[in-house]
Specification:
476 residues; alpha/beta; Aminopeptidase; Alpha-Beta Plaits; 2 domains; 21% strand; globular
């Protein structure tokens, strides 16, 4: 079988050029995919080929990957700060990985500017249940950036690199993060060039040229003709990032189409002489805290062997708005919780009904986070009256916490959600780090300023109306 992509035999096409007469013909190869942002997966796919070019290369690939990881995990301040934010990876438990697409590799130049993030995907790999789940976040999503207040989610990367981004996503979702992978645009360009370009049917003309000095509509310049063509790395990057006049959904569709073609055309990755080149691209353009070769091999193996029907894709949605002259996406706590639930338990896993959580089986610790006298004891007593095995743990690490926080240990998210509902809509749900979870503890409640001394009353079930008695006429 030839290792060239399946292309029409019309002669060689130079990168960025269109085949003769292709601009006027209907698209034969273009497929509009489901709209999910996935371009960071290009690098996951490349990494698989770097280390998995056949069983006969196992030892060489292992050694090469070890040196590659050493370079991709530099001991810079940005990387070490990020490492301090992640949660330990426990064998046998699902692994959560934050994929960050940015215009610069964080940590590559010490503690300087980390650049800007363009794409955020929280990846969950559940080996026991055999599925992969992705949760995407619009880059303009308006969220709370720890220590900075409300802003676009992509500003977290500019403020503090991967560490601040990890902290933001953890606060937003209430879920732990075990690893991060930061991928830069330059690596994308080099990868596409290394494979010799990618053949794609461009649906229309894409053009934008900035006018020097006017400062209006300054975007990345692009000049692509319609038709079937081989794209080089620069043109491919312009194409998948274009959204000057399109919606984000159109951009995501282009990214999906491009990725599909890249995967279809990359069987030449198996060529032994090219493996060091791909390893070099990986090392020079990816920053990660994955430092164990066996762990990375396990992650990559699951990425390649998981059936496509066992890959769930979700994205947080919201409404476009303007804040301070900037376009943002507003969302709700309910939307975030719903998408996190779908991420944790995809539709194909929802055949069996969820187990009912009995309050007397949930051990709760209550801390005082607002500084008001006896508030922790009061909340503890109220939870006991609701049937929970609750104890007061004294004061939190500090006072002045605005919202009540309900943090849960592994497997106790549903119990925590039930408790959070009792403390009102301003309650924050979060995951307990394993190092901060005493034996037997299921849920920790830290009462904040939002706690007014009372729990939300349980809704009483409506009584069924009494049947109307038959009326008997006794006058006749």
């Amino acid at each position: 079988m030839s290792d060239e992509p399946n292309v029409p035999e019309t002669g060689e096409v130079e990168p960025g050029e269109v085949e003769a007469d292709e601009a006027d013909r209907p698209a034969r190869w273009f497929r509009v995919p489901r709209t999910r942002r996935r371009w960071p997966w290009v690098f996951m796919w490349a990494a698989v080929f770097i280390v998995g070019a056949g069983a006969g290369l196992a030892v060489a690939s292992y050694q090469l990957l070890g040196s590659t990881l050493d370079k991709a995990s530099p001991d810079t301040k940005l990387v070490l700060d990020a490492q301090a934010q992640v949660d330990p990876d426990v064998p046998g438990e699902p692994v959560n990985i934050l994929l960050i697409g940015s215009d610069k590799r964080a940590g590559a130049e010490g503690a300087g500017d980390p650049g800007r993030s363009d794409s955020l995907i929280l990846l969950r790999m559940d080996g026991d249940r055999g599925f992969i789940s992705m949760l995407s976040f619009p880059r303009d999503l308006y969220v709370d950036i720890p220590g900075s207040g409300m802003d676009k989610i992509n500003s977290a990367f500019s403020r503090g690199g991967p560490a601040k981004t990890i902290e933001t996503i953890k606060r937003l979702t209430g879920e732990p993060i075990n690893y991060f992978v930061n991928i830069d645009f330059e690596g994308f360009v080099k990868l596409v060039d290394q494979v010799g370009g990618v053949y794609l049917d461009v649906d229309r003309k894409y053009f934008h040229k900035n006018v020097p000095g006017d400062g209006i509509d300054d975007y990345e310049e692009i000049d692509l003709e319609p038709g079937y063509q081989r794209m080089n790395g620069k043109d491919a990057l312009d194409y998948v990032r274009y959204r000057h006049t399109d919606s984000d959904f159109a951009r995501i569709a282009r990214q999906q189409a491009f990725l599909s073609e890249l995967k279809r055309q990359t069987n030449r990755f198996g060529n032994l002489p090219e493996i060091p080149a791909y390893a070099s691209i990986f090392a020079d353009n990816i920053t990660t805290n994955v430092r164990s070769v066996p762990r990375l091999l396990g992650i990559l193996q699951q990425a390649m062997t998981t059936d496509k029907d066992r890959i769930a894709r979700n994205s947080v949605s919201g409404n476009a708005n303007m804040r301070g002259g900037a376009a943002v996406v507003d969302t709700t706590r309910g939307e975030i919780d719903a998408k996190v639930d779908a991420w944790l338990n995809p539709e194909f896993e929802q055949g069996a009904p969820a187990a009912v959580v009995s309050p007397n089986e949930v051990q709760v610790q209550v801390l005082n986070g607002n500084g008001r006298l006896l508030d922790a004891e009061k909340a503890t007593d109220q939870l006991r009256k609701r049937g929970y095995d609750a104890v007061s743990g004294g004061n939190a690490d500090s006072f002045g916490k605005p919202e009540t926080q309900v943090a849960y240990a592994d497997g106790q998210r549903e119990a925590a959600r039930n408790i959070a509902a009792m403390f009102g809509t301003e309650t924050v749900l979060a995951a307990l780090s394993r190092s901060d979870t005493p034996d037997g503890l299921d849920v920790r409640v830290t009462v904040g300023e939002s706690y007014d001394g009372e729990l939300v009353q349980k809704k009483k079930a409506k009584k069924a109306p009494k049947p109307t008695a038959d009326v008997v006429d006794t006058t006749s």
